[in-house]
Amino acid sequence: MKNLKDLPGNIMKLSMVLITLFLVTASCKKDNASVMEDMPDSLQAEREKVREFWDFYRAAQKHRTAGEFLAARDCFLKALEINARHEDALFNYGNMCYELGKYSEAEDAWNRLIAVHPLNARGHYQLGNLYMRLEDPRYFNLEKAGMEFHKALDLNREITGPLLRLGQILLIRNELKEAEQYFLQVNGTDIKNVEAYFQRGYIAWKQRNDEMAMQLFSKAANYSIQEKREGGVAVEGDTKGNISLKRPIGESLFHQFLQSMNGIGEEKIRDEMINRYGDQDRFLMQLRQH
Q1: For residue 12, how many other CB atoms are within 10 A of its CB?
Q2: Measured between alpha carbons, how far is 233 from 195 in angstroms, rounded to an integer?
Q3: Following CA atoms 80, 86, 87, 89 in sequence, which dihedral angle do they give, to the nearest 10 degrees?
């Protein structure tokens, strides 16, 4: 009964506590508003710049994932005008310039990224990709590409992209045994990598080991089917979901020989292997004349 008698008093005490909390909260809000009003103009301008940067950056990412590369590039550029040292903005701005065929601007963006952060493996990897572009002879330079891929690999041993590209360079130079070692490393890390199996099969085919070539080509075809079902496997630097105006930066130099492997039937696989490896062999001979 004593507790019941004390109930009105307890309710009164609780009400006073709630009222006090309300008044303190209102006072804090008022103080915050006063602080904002009293904030120096320079600090307010800086806060506005930060807000503008993220508005442009988010808009750029939205355009990028929608495949609207021109709009994305422009938004990344506006973001960089506010913060010229932002690493992701520099990286993606370079990607968008590349996708639009603006190779000089892409090269400049990735070099700026490396200047900001010398240990950024992505910048070196993208420069290596740029120097393996046949679309513009000014940028097809295997020596420079190899240097960039080695730098990327030294900075990040966990990515397979540089290993695959270094294998491709050795393949072009007709250094087949050395190339094979790189493709083996790729499959050691990425057991589903289609091109690594494909190129190992090509090397076996060149060495007249038809049985091994067939096994490896079949593996490439089988994993290509799995890739198709899973919606594809992203690569470093890939801008997934986009429609490029130029050859996408994540696309292999040998993409034409890897297309539609998931649709090869068992009855056609040997003929398909011979045709594809023959076509690639002729392609490589042309490349060696550059």
Answers
A1: 10
A2: 12
A3: -40
Q: How far is CA 137 from CA 123, 141, 148, 283, 290, in A?
A: 21, 8, 18, 16, 9
pTM here is: 0.78
Q: Tens digit of pLDDT for each residue in 198-209?
A: 999 999 999 999
Burial classification of residue 262, based on how many CB atoms lie within 10 Å of its CB (0-12 exposed, 13-18 middle, 19 or more buried):
middle
* Amino acid occupying residue 69: F
